[in-house]
Amino acid sequence: xxxxxxxxxxxxxxxxxxxxxxxxxxxxxxxxxxxxxxxxxxxxxxxxxxxxxxxxxxxxxxxxxxxxxxxxxxxxxxxxxxxxxxxxxxxxxxxxxxxxxxxxxxxxxxxxxxxxxxxxxxxxxxxxxxxxxxxxxxxxxxxxxxxxxxxxxxxxxxxxxxxxxxxxxxxxxxxxxxxxxxxxxxxxxxxxxxxxxxxxxxxxxxxxxxxxxxxxxxxxxxxxxxxxxxxxxxxxxxxxxxxxxxxxxxxxxxxxxxxxxxxxx
Length: 265
Ligand SMILES: NC(=O)c1ccc[n+]([C@@H]2O[C@H](COP(=O)([O-])OP(=O)(O)OC[C@H]3O[C@@H](n4cnc5c(N)ncnc54)[C@H](OP(=O)(O)O)[C@@H]3O)[C@@H](O)[C@H]2O)c1
Description:
CATH architecture: 3-Layer(aba) Sandwich
Number of helices: 9
Number of strands: 9
Helix content: 40-55%
CATH superfamily: NAD(P)-binding Rossmann-like Domain
Bound molecules: NADP nicotinamide-adenine-dinucleotide phosphate
């Protein structure tokens, strides 16, 4: 069935692949970018302006989306960026910016569209988190914090939206070859005490980059979640995660069942 889908950050990386594939499958896709005019002419789907750091941009989003479509079936929260660097060397202002964009920007976009989803009594909200929303790596503490925050928020939200028939899912990719590193912000301060660790982090990061996967794998997973009526909340994608997937199912399965049982009683 043809669906109306909004995907943030559709100019590059996962977002571009997902939007292109969903458009190809016949869905009505609206993508977003901070600079739609830069990309619009070469994209097959509609691209509208959205800056996660701008209240004004987010406040007018719903109006602009519903000028294009009368109902929205799926929101894919994908836009985000990476602040990397040793935590103590990272200016708090840069860390704040990381959470402002990745966490608060995503929450504000979701809130802007929830009234319509509730009115429709249907919808799906898919958010691209990260494996570092579940575990943390060095050299990206604020990025991990922003993804952990999203994880916790949506984990809670999905219970509250169930009665409105609004499904909530997260995608948790490991490292994949997109433009995320080129678009990232780096801490500039250097504290000598970290020099030894810095060398180790560099080889850890180089290894991560060398083994980064094909982003089409993540795009395929997102498309699958779009197509599934009642998708799982957690969708971990990438190499070396199978143990984590099993542990997650084991650890959370029982607790989650208990919460749902009480809410449904
Ligand atoms: N690549 C990985 O290994 C990996 C792993 C786990 C999770 N992720 C997550 O996947 C998502 C997509 O990242 P990607 O890897 O595809 O990176 P990417 O190629 O750099 O794409 C990022 C997208 O987000 C948009 N964006 C960035 N900052 C924005 C802002 N302030 N307001 C609005 N849009 C903004 C960009 O659009 P414009 O620049 O056109 O505005 C772009 O379309 C992110 O949430 C990222 O954290 C990536």
